[in-house]
Amino acid sequence: MIRMTLQEQIAYLSKGCVDVVREPELRAKLERAARSGVPLTVKVGFDPTAPDLHLGHTVLLRKMKHFQDLGHRVIFLIGDFTGLIGDPTGRSKTRPPLTREQIEENAETYKKQVFKLLDPDKTVVDFNSAWLRALGAEGWIRLAARYNVAQMLERRDFRQRYDGGRPIAIHEFLYPLAQAYDSVHLRADVELGGTDQLFNLNVGRDIMPAWGVEPQVVMTTPLLVGLDGTEKMSKSASNYVGITEPPGEMFGKLMSISDALMWRYHELLTDLALAEIEVLKARTAAGELHPKRVKVDLAARIVTDFHSASAARQAADAFERRFARREVPSDVDDWSVAIPEAGRRLSAVMVDAGLAKSGAAATRLIAQGGVRIDGARVGDRFHTVPVDRPAFILQVGRRARRIRPFRPTA
Engineering a disulfide at 261: which of 155, 172, 257, 281 sits with its beta carbon 3.0 to 4.6 angstroms away? Predict the structure, then answer.
């Protein structure tokens, strides 16, 4: 168990969080836990809607691990009952519920994957069908009586569908209530979720006092942006890194992210303190560290978490052999390109360097995966080159230029 002062605990647990509802309550709960020796109960629910987890899911898993590091009790709650309802979050229409067979199969896969980050000896795995089925008709009626339609319509996606004349099935209103009752039954001190879950988490806060349970603290983490730098990481967007992927594949995908995005990945996908990340940023901006070196270290950290340090070293060596040593030419022309103080789009730099005929053509080349900086693929069409970046090798297909950024004078 990590020993920290109360203020250090707050900083450690809040790192990367968007919402903490409310921090004074979290502080009070942590103080009480320290006095009594009784750990907090921290709940996170996952509906088994797909068989595999990706790095986007691990933002929450890592926050669970942070609570475990401080000695608290973490419940990995598999929503085998709520999965039958289907989470309406972010949906413009009623989502089809999963079959019982799909849920059970996916739940088994989840259990095998989460312990790549979580300590199995400190993690309670539970299924919410155990108590939600037992509620029965009378129990569900009493639960539904704790919330009203006006409150439900405060939820943005419900309101948009209602105002747009699109149907809302009655059972969709049951989802946030079921999630809230999970917190009642488990007597959760803290519930974690993505920012898109804020409404559901707060329903738990609202109804817990009706059962004589102290309201939970709600903490949300951001939705991880995918490899493309624009959309939320997801399988459907093909911008994801699966946590069961081979080390070399994980490493290569992570090396493709933009320099700007890698700082967000440092914050959400590693245990580095914010102060340590700021030092890395400052040293990179000052030219003491090359962005590629920082990105290699990031990819190695993440691969180590899900495989091993040895696997990460092998993946880094393989990447270096494949890209840096073989594909990055040593004999290339130097091109000085003007970069304003606010930075410049990579697509414009490509045009100036004679590597693309137009900005639109450059954007297409980036989207197609044909552009690399120092051997690392750039997938973000809005990638911006900062003026203080050291010289770098810019490749488009087999053509390459050594770009030397400079700040134009007035």
Answer: 257
Which residue shows structure tokens 């598999």? 78
Side by side, the strands of the sheet bearing 376-377 are 333-338, 399-406, 392-396, 371-373, 376-377
Query: 326: Cβ–Cβ under 8 A, 6 or more apart, which residues?
Result: none
Distance from C-alpha of 57 to C-alpha of 51, rounded to nearest angstrom: 12
For the record, the structure tokens of 402 come out as 């050594």
State the Cα–Cα distance between residues 392 and 394, nearest whole angstrom. Answer: 6
Of 70, 115, 63, give the one whose Cα is nearest residue 220: 63
Q: What is the pLDDT of residues 283-301, one digit of tens each?
A: 999 889 999 899 999 999 9
Q: What is the pLDDT of residues 242-291, one digit of tens each?
A: 898 899 889 988 988 888 899 999 999 999 988 999 999 999 998 899 99
CATH number of the structural domain spanning residue 117: 3.40.50.620
**pLDDT-derived band of residue 157, with 50, 70 and 90 as boundaries?**
confident
Quote the CA–CA distance of 98 and 50 in Å, as a whole number: 10
What is the longest distance spanned by two Cα atoms in the chain? 77
**Same domain (yes/no): 264, 202:** no
Tell which of 325, 359, 394 closes a domain. Answer: 325
Instruction: Say how far apart CA 260 and CA 264 lie, in whole Å.
Output: 8
